[in-house]
Automatic annotation (TrEMBL):
Entry's family note: Belongs to the iron/ascorbate-dependent oxidoreductase family.
Molecular function per GO: acyltransferase activity, transferring groups other than amino-acyl groups; metal ion binding; oxidoreductase activity
Name recorded for this polypeptide: Fe2OG dioxygenase domain-containing protein
Database matches in PANTHER family: OXOGLUTARATE/IRON-DEPENDENT DIOXYGENASE (PTHR47991)
Species annotation: Solanum bulbocastanum (Wild potato)
InterPro entries on file: Acyl_CoA_acyltransferase (IPR016181), GNAT_dom (IPR000182), IPNS-like_FE2OG_OXY (IPR044861), IPNS-like_sf (IPR027443), Oxoglu/Fe-dep_dioxygenase_dom (IPR005123), Plant_2OG-oxidoreductases (IPR050295)
Superkingdom field: Eukaryota
Length: 275
């Protein structure tokens, strides 16, 4: 790499009497290739792993190394950028100094060709444009830039995102429909699914999709927008709370499956046999 872009970041997290009500640094992944961090041995850094936040116990005099978004792109997803956040405590302030190493601002980063077997999910983009796109989304950043929706377990159905004829890329979608309920005078929307492709996350598309549904509801006089999120998905929960939503405590979700569902098959058969 002939040139690069380095960012020097000094972070001070004062102690807080009610740490559970405060957040030192919201969940995010770093832009660049690698970020090197030294810190004063006061914990607080947490890394997201399999939907859980893992506390980082840094060794004394060690450097912490974070993988960034552009390493993920360059390695064609082999090295994922890690999502991390910093929580505060009520006894000691944390100080950290980070140096983020990225490519030159003008560099167009794309997956290294030897690592691309067939298709890739990563669209080449100028490093500068990528950073600008993230900054466009200030309100979301303050609540958590990483927006992880419940997403299909495989990318298979989305493989062919590029249409060579007109250069259309599908970055994500939201599937919603009107629903009617006896309790409300007016109907609302139910969001069945919202998904943003991994390489387009942290760019504000999730916020854009969600806002489109909410403003359409408003426009046509609907009184609510409902959806479900799995309980462990803290990022999604933070995101939705940040969008002004609240969690409904009095709703119970029911499911009929396994033997309960099979019982109906039997009933049907019995009924059929009898006549
Ligand atoms: O304070 C830390 O350890 C993390 C800092 C950080 O994530 C950042 O500056 O991007
Ligand atoms: Fe960071």
């Amino acid at each position: 790499m002939k040139s690069g872009f380095q960012l020097f970041i000094a972070n001070y997290y004062p102690c807080c009497p009610q740490p559970e009500l405060a957040l030192g640094m919201p969940p995010h992944s770093d832009h660049g290739l690698l970020t090197l961090i030294i810190q004063n041995q006061v914990g607080g850094l947490q890394v997201q792993h399999q939907g859980k936040w893992i506390h980082v116990n840094a060794l004394p005099n060690s450097l912490l190394v974070n993988t960034g978004d552009h390493l993920e792109i360059f390695s064609n997803g082999k090295y994922k950028s890690n999502v991390h956040k910093v929580v505060v405590n009520n006894t000691s302030p944390r100080i950290s100094v980070a140096v983020a190493h990225g490519p030159s601002l003008e560099a167009i980063v794309s997956p290294a060709s030897p690592l691309v077997q067939s298709e890739t999910n990563y669209i080449p983009m100028k490093y500068k444009d990528y950073m600008e796109m993230q900054q466009m989304d200030k309100p979301l950043s303050s609540e958590g830039r990483e927006v992880a929706y419940d997403r299909p377990s495989t990318q298979e159905p989305f493989k062919s995102t590029s249409n060579e004829d007109n250069n259309v890329y599908i970055a994500g979608y939201v599937l919603f429909y009107p629903c009617y309920s006896g309790y409300f005078e007016k109907p609302g929307f139910f969001i069945e699914n919202m998904f943003v492709r991994e390489c387009y996350r942290k760019c504000g598309f999730g916020k854009m999709l969600f806002s489109a549904v909410a403003s359409q509801a408003n426009k046509i006089g609907f009184t609510k927008v409902d959806w479900l999120t799995v309980g462990w998905n803290e990022n999604a929960i933070d995101f939705y709370l940040g969008m002004g939503a609240y969690i409904m405590q009095d709703v119970k979700r029911f499911r009929l499956s396994g033997e309960g569902l099979d019982a109906f098959a039997k009933n049907d058969q019995d009924g059929g046999d009898k006549g």
